[in-house]
Design a protein that fits this description.
The longest helix is centred in the middle third of the chain and has 58 residues. The strands form two sheets. A three-stranded antiparallel beta sheet has the order 4-3-5. A two-stranded antiparallel sheet has the order 1-2. Among the domains are: 34 residues, no CATH class; 81 residues. Strand 1 and strand 2 form a beta hairpin. It has five helices and five strands, in the order E-E-E-E-H-E-H-H-H-H. Helix 2 runs antiparallel to helix 3. With 197 residues, the chain is mainly alpha-helical. The N terminus is likely disordered. The chain starts with a strand and ends in a 19-residue tail after the last helix. The relative contact order is 0.12. 63% of the residues lie in helices and 7% in strands. This is B box and SPRY domain-containing protein isoform X2. InterPro entries: TRIM/RBCC, Znf_B-box. It holds the Pfam family zf-B_box.
Length: 197
């Protein structure tokens, strides 16, 4: 919708009636003036609300979104800080126990199985490395997810801080298309850890 400015501090005006855009047409989803919303206006019969009420509703939705993102971030941070280190330790302990068992068994037939000993030790080492790399990959992934969530939350808070009522209403679709909980690209997405779900 094209609007004209009413001057510093007065906000935009309705281009048709020159009045302040103090109402919101729910049918056309745009700010309108009192004349547009009146009996002879183009929005006659539409569901009309005060613009400030619509803006407050949008602000509440953004606050709710920020809270959900904050909870999501906290769950991922807890997973990265508490669960992944335990997995890493368990993987190391399991590999160590397997290595000791292999050594004990091969000691009996060392003279006949030198090549077999080397193969089995390398196999155990390879499994340990794969487990360790998997954990490192998860840690990097969730760290990036946390950063993206924080960026989205910061952007939403910035909008709450800097947008006036009309700007907030006019940018509603853009806000929720860009920040509708998309913390990372679909192709990068991994299943959430149990503590997150």
């Amino acid at each position: 919708m094209s609007v004209e400015s009413a001057g510093p501090g007065l906000g935009p005006l309705c281009p048709e009636h020159g009045q302040a855009l103090s109402w919101f047409c729910c049918s056309e989803r745009r700010p309108v003036c009192a004349a547009c919303a009146g009996l002879g206006g183009r929005c006659r019969g539409h569901r009309i609300r005060r613009a400030e009420e619509r803006a407050e509703e949008l602000r509440n939705k953004i606050v709710d979104q920020c809270e959900r993102l904050q909870f999501h971030s906290a769950s991922i941070a807890k997973y990265v800080a508490e669960v992944l280190p335990g997995k890493n330790q368990r993987a190391a302990s399991t590999a160590s126990a397997a290595r000791e068992l292999v050594i004990q068994r091969l000691a009996v037939v060392r003279s006949l199985c030198e090549s077999e000993e080397q193969r089995l030790l390398e196999q155990v080492h390879g499994e340990e490395e794969r487990a360790h790399q998997s954990i490192l990959t998860q840690q990097v992934h969730w760290t990036e997810a946390l950063q993206k969530l924080d960026t989205i939350r910061t952007s939403l808070v910035g909008m709450l801080t800097h947008l006036d009522d009309l700007q907030l209403i006019q940018k509603e679709q853009e806000i929720f298309e860009r920040h509708g909980g998309r913390a990372y690209r679909r192709e990068d997405r991994q299943p959430l850890p149990a503590t997150v779900r």
